[in-house]
Amino acid sequence: MNRLIQFKGKKTDSTNYVVGFFFGRSASDECVSFIGFTPYSIHNVWTDSMGEFCGFELPNKIRLFEGDIIAYDNRDNHMKSDFNAVIEFHNGCFGLQYITGDYEGIFSPFSDFHEPEKYLLPYLTIIGTDFDDRFRH
What we know:
The structure is a single chain. The chain is elongated. The mean pLDDT is about 90. With about 140 residues, the chain is mainly β. It has helices at about 115-120, 130-135; strands spanning about 5-10, 15-25, 30-35, 40-45, 50-55, 65, 70, 85-90, 95-100, 105-110, 125-130. The chain has two helices and eleven strands. The strands form two sheets. Strands 4-3-2-1-5-6 form a six-stranded antiparallel beta sheet, with no helix packed on it. It has a five-stranded antiparallel beta sheet with strand order 10-9-8-7-11.
């Protein structure tokens, strides 16, 4: 199986996020890492803001990354209720760490979802990132 390995991180000099390959950490500042597509297009990003591509994208082709906060709209009753969750990596797999709803506090790997492309992804909206949420307070 081929898997696209990419990272998203928040640039240190703006509020924008960039996507690319991980090039390493700064030797002079452990809070800064480097993301880019080539060694000639590298961006400084906050290390804590980095998240890996989880292998799924929404129907509108937006990729989901570790640390993204998503909202689930239960309009077709595929789940018990609406919920918010953070995409996280636990025990070797990506999944949802529920932060609201009936499953609050529980981690569910994506492998627990029956046909996520049909019953989960079309109902998700990215509403923020864990990194931005931690620094709002």
